[in-house]
Amino acid sequence: MKAPGFWGFPPDERDWRPQLLAPISCAVAAASRHRIARPPAYSSKIPVVCIGNINVGGTGKTPTVIALTQRLAQTGTTPHIVSRGYGGTNPGPVRVNERLHTAADVGDEPLLLSAFAPTWVSRNRATGVRMAENDGAGMILLDDGFQNPSVAKDFSIVVVDATYGFGNARVMPAGPLRETLTDGLARADILLSIGPDHAQQKFLDTWKKEINCRHITADLVPLATGMDWQDLKVLAFAGIGHPEKFFQTLRGLGANIVDAKPLDDHQPLNAALLKRLETEADRLGAQLVTTEKDATRLPAEFRQKVLTLPVRLQLDDWSELDAALNTLQTRERN
Question: N or C: which end of the chain has fewer CB within 10 A?
Answer without folding.
Answer: C
